[in-house]
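Students often ask why we bother encoding 3D structure as a string. The short answer is that it lets us treat folding as translation between two languages. Here is a chain of 218 residues written in the first language.
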Amino acid sequence: MNIQEQLITFNKQQLILNNQRTIFWPKQNTLILSDLHLGKAAHFRKHGIPIPSDTANQDLQRLATLIDHYKAANILVVGDLIHAGINQEVFLLKEFKQKYVDLNFHLVLGNHDRMVEKLAKQIDLIYHKDKFELEQISFVHEPTTAPSAFSISGHIHPGVSIRLPPNKHLRLPCFWVSAQQIILPAFSKFTGLDSRKMPLEYACYAVHDEIILPLKNS
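And here it is in the second language, the structure alphabet:
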């Protein structure tokens, strides 16, 4: 897996954005991500929609590679770790956590996170109902439209449409970064993209398997 990085400063903290849709915070030795949506593919298959069965495994393998790459001691998911209750794909997380018994696993609850109490007991998950705060940064699932403090969130699955010649468009996941707010792309590749026009106060960092690309907002 190719990991490309972009260093930014946010609330006087050095953060590393990467093309694998996560942030690494060196000072806290913490890997930050959002919208893993474990169990979504199984949920769709249950309702007759043919989705590949290895989607969740691929996402967890990417996560494992990132943990090993950064030697992270902590992981923080800012919402939607699971998609629609507990199913067999969600239990893959139990096997995953057994490989990282010393990893501190935090979750800020998202709108899809149901039955988390049961999951927390099985994988030693620490969950926070509304927000988690560290170094004067609030970690919440849903971004606010007018942040009054520093926050990192997910939920909207931000994307950007890049025009290619002669008349084509490429849609990519992206980070939205303003002076007070960072909105993460969805970690899972089995999600849609919201490529609405980005507010002017944000910078955009588009991500692809091979690159992280700063883009001007216009």
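Translate back mentally: The two ends are 32 Å apart (CA to CA). Keep this in mind for the problem set.
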